[in-house]
Design goal:
- The chain is an alpha/beta fold.
- Helix content is 46%, strand content 19%.
- It has helices at residues 14-26, 38-47, 63-75; strands at 6-10, 30-35, 52-55.
- A 3-stranded parallel beta sheet has the order 2-1-3.
- Strand 1, helix 1 (14-26) and strand 2 form a beta-alpha-beta unit.
Length: 78
């Protein structure tokens, strides 16, 4: 059980994002997002604390932004 921990979903495929959201809710997590792009995820991270993030593999071409996101999350002690 996730015990109401906020989990950010970064996924550009809507059906996959929905499936992930339902799974997170099923184990008592709080869905943050979903964000369809890394840029949207970074905007969300400016205002919301998260415990973890799920990043879609389809966003791999945005690796530089993903690295920045990971560094920002590390700074937040995520």
């Amino acid at each position: 059980m996730l015990r109401h921990l906020p989990i950010l979903i970064v996924e550009d495929e809507p059906l996959i994002a929905l499936s992930l959201a339902l799974e997170i809710e099923d184990v008592e997590g709080i869905v943050v997002g979903p964000a369809a792009t890394v840029s949207q995820a970074l905007t969300i991270l400016q205002t919301q604390a998260i415990a973890a993030a799920i990043l879609g593999s389809g966003l791999i071409d945005q690796s530089q932004k993903m690295t920045v996101a990971a560094m920002q999350m590390a700074d937040m002690k995520v």
